[in-house]
Amino acid sequence: MLSRTERTLSSIILLVVAIITLYPIVVLVTTAFDRVNANNSSISFFKSLSFSSFKYAWTQGGFSQYTIHTAIMTVSVVVGSIIVAVLAAYAVALLKPYGSRILFYVAIIGFMLPVEVLVTPWFYELRSLGWLNTYWALIIPQLAQSVAFGIFWMNSAFLAVPKELTEAAVIDGASRADVFRLVLLPNVTPAIKTMGALVFLWTWNAFLLPLVLVSSPSLFVVTEGLSNFQGAHFNNYGALAAGAVLAALPVVIVYLASQRSFIRGMFAGSTVG
Amino acid sequence: MSSITLQHATKVYPNGFKAVDDINLEISDGELMVLVGPSGCGKTTLMRMIAGLETVSDGKILIGERDVTTAAPKERDVAMVFQNYALYPHMTIGQNIGFPLRLRRVPKQESSGKIATAARILGLASVIQRRPGQLSGGQRQRVAMGRAIVREPSVFLMDEPLSNLDAKLRVEMRTEILRIQRRVNVATVYVTHDQTEAMTMGDRVAVLDAGRLQQCDSPQTLYEEPANLIVAAFIGSPSMNLFEAQLSADARTLQVGSSALPAAAVMEHVPGLKAYAGRTIVIGLRPEDMALSTDESAPGITGVVDLIEALGSELLVHFGSDAKRVRPAVAISADSDEYLPEAEVSDRDGWVARLGARTQVKPGDTVRLTPDLSRMHCFDPESGDALR
Question: What ipTM goes with this model?
Answer without folding.
Answer: 0.83
